[in-house]
């Protein structure tokens, strides 16, 4: 009997947890979510958006990006990929405009550059790394991401973990990000550093308040 899409996704998640547990140990699985839930630790004021970002864990568990407790990118939706995962949304209405991922190990950086240049002024931009986000990055791509508010992008390296909330123009009041360097001496997952999580509350445009 063919399995439903939801059941297939659930089975894949179970396998991911088992594989990751064998790779890095069960203790390392505590503190983050590999399913479709968005684990906001703080309650969001009514006049704000809430963003929850979780980088990938090693090369096993994909990243997660949530908006207002709704999963936008993640393994359950089967729309996360190796490299840099990006969500853009309208800074006034909160409407999701685009989701995509760009392989920065075996892919073409020009595809990422084209996407970054197409981001509309006033957009909020969310990014999360998975496995390897930096090999193919060049100066132009790094500058375009820096222009969105990132400072860590200038030093983002091989297999670093990274999450970022920024914007083009004045779409966010201030950018936020977390970045952990790949360091064999301190890595949590053998050849990868620990994953990073970020919770951000961004003030809605006054015209959008009820």
What is the structure about, briefly put?
The protein has 210 residues and is an alpha+beta fold.
Low-confidence stretches: 17-31, 206-210
Strand order of the largest sheet: 5-4-6-7-8
User: What count of helical segments does DSSP give?
Assistant: 3
Q: How many angstroms does the end-to-end distance come to?
A: 48 Å
Signal peptide: 1-21
Pfam family, one: ILEI
Domain ILEI/PANDER: 83-169
Organism: Nothobranchius furzeri
Structure description:
The chain has 210 residues and is an alpha+beta fold. It has one domain. 18% of the residues lie in helices and 27% in strands. The chain is built from three helices and nine strands; from the N terminus they run αβββββαβαβββ. The strands form two sheets. It has a five-stranded antiparallel beta sheet with strand order 5-4-6-7-8, covered by helices on one side. Strands 3-2-1-9 form a four-stranded antiparallel beta sheet, with no helix packed on it. A hairpin with an 8-residue loop joins β7 (161-167) and β8 (176-180). Residues 1-21 form the signal peptide. One of its GO terms (cellular component) is extracellular region.
Keywords:
about 210 residues, alpha+beta, 5-stranded antiparallel beta sheet, about 20% helix, about 25% strand, disordered C terminus
